[in-house]
Amino acid sequence: MDYVNIQERGGDVIISGLDFFDFTTLDCGQAFRWVKLDDENFTGIAHGRRVNLRLQNGELILQNTTMAEYENIWRDYFDFGRSYTTLREALDNCDTMKKALAFSTGLRLMRQCPWETLISFILSQNSNIPRIKKMIEALCQNFGEKLACGGYAFPTPAVLAEADLAVIRSGYRAPYIQDAARRTAAGEFDLHETATTDELRAALLKVHGVGPKVADCVLLFGYGKLECFPLDVWIKRVVAKLYPNGLPTELQEYAGIAQQFLFHYARSNPAEF
Fold first, then answer.
1. CA of residue 26 relative to chain centroid, distance
2. pLDDT, tens digit, 9 for 90 and up, residues 198-253
3. How far from chain centre, in Å, is Cα 20?
4. In CATH, what number is assigned to the domain containing residue 71?
5. 144 in any annotated domain
6. How many domains in the chain?
């Protein structure tokens, strides 16, 4: 079921009736290939397609796309099949969670390509968002296929398994990327998502340089495993302060989405933690 109104108009897809969405979603540390053009426009590439997004008069306009592309890519990518009104009611269980929800009224959990998510979060280690974006863009420009719609696709496992990664200046992360590429090219990961969460986590943890936090990021942002709750330095502070005995039952169904709201709030309001 869609919780939005959709129509195709003049080469664009127009979405109205969104129950919570803004560009916070694109720039809060869960995806790294989105570029802000101005306050109303972003552009980005996912699943080998570029799309320009425009927020105007309560509508989200996906420019240069089709209804078929929306159904095949962007609907799930932006989680438009989920009611965030219902979700937010389920998460609204404590004062800090209320603050986090109010602080990020337009935040959604994005569903990305598992392979791209794995490499992105390997590169994210001990780095900041601008540098992560720079490394990923260099990776795509040097090793990805040039797209007719502009820009470059994310490089394939087979290409990265044999690539000289010195050009992207990823430092100690380079051998981790190549180990991930070789394992993925060899079929150790089920990119079609038929494996269980535990099976996927076990496979991810075999990759050099992938620990529990990166593995859970891949499971959450790439495979949509909402029970996963990545623990970085910010979330560890939040959990220590608010949930020393573990997440309450009412948060567990949407634990991964709760994590993203709490992460963005804590990072933006460090004095509280």
1. 8
2. 999 999 999 999 999 999 999 999 999 999 999 999 899 999 988 888 888 878 88
3. 17
4. 3.30.310.260
5. yes
6. 2
Length of the chain in residues, anyone?
273
Q: Are residues 75 and 121 in the same domain?
A: no
Whether 123 and 184 map to the same domain: the answer is: yes
pLDDT of 68 over the 90 cut: yes
Read off the tokens for 185.
């090219």
Residue with tokens 């968002």: 129
Q: Tell me: do 77 and 118 sit in the same domain.
A: no
End-of-domain residue from the set 222, 241, 262: 222
Q: What is the pTM of this model?
A: 0.93
How far is Cα 149 from Cα 59, in angstroms, rounded to an integer?
Answer: 23
Q: Read off the pLDDT band of 2 (50, 70, 90).
A: low
Alpha-carbon span 75 to 18, nearest angstrom: 12
- Assess whether 20 and 120 both reside in one domain: no
Write out the H or E segment, with its range, that includes residue 68: helix 67-69
User: Bigger pLDDT: 108 or 1?
Assistant: 108
DSSP output for 185-229 = HTT-S-TTS-S-HHHHHHHHTTSTT--HHHHHHIIIIIT--TT--
User: Do residues 51 and 78 make contact, with C-beta atoms less than 8 angstroms apart?
Assistant: no
Q: Are residues 214 and 126 in the same domain?
A: yes
| pLDDT at residue 168 in the model | 95
Return the DSSP state at 46.
Answer: E
The one-letter code for the residue type at 221 is: F
Whether the predicted pLDDT of 189 surpasses 80:
no
Query: How many CA atoms are closer than 13 Å to the CA of 127, on its beta-carbon side?
Result: 21
Q: Which domain holds residue 197?
A: 114-222
